[in-house]
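Tutorial, part two.
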Amino acid sequence: MIEVYNKIYDNKFMSEVTYYVLIQNYGVKPHFETMHESISDYTHYFSKYTLFLNFYPKNRDKVEVEILKYAPKLLTQIKNKRKLAILTKFVFYVIIKNNDAKITKTVSRVIYHNNGQEINLSVNAFLKSYYRLVPLFSQIIQESKTI
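Running the prediction step on this input gives:
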């Protein structure tokens, strides 16, 4: 598990927000998880996405390096409250880019965990929103390469 982004907010209450990524390319069901954890003075909030893949991702080290390199810039640039969903789609983008897999046949299941509740999401809806974000992901990677 790698820590991708960490930020401390010092508003009325002190809170710390952390994003993690875990890629499992072994075992019966290859998958990856993106997690969001928020700890404040009075609450603890935890949510995560789990994407089950139909292939075993290769180049895991290269994928993790790219995620660590580009994801913090993505998360600071995004002003959306759905940062975890966007991070999940970005990790999927990096995995697909490094494995030359067909996008439509790669995801078998998407699960969203929110404080103990587990929700199965539509794979087609995930891919549809993924396609809308691909230009943003490639733009962030290109901007980071030119700096």
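The longest strand covers residues 14-24. In part three we will examine how such features are distributed along the chain.
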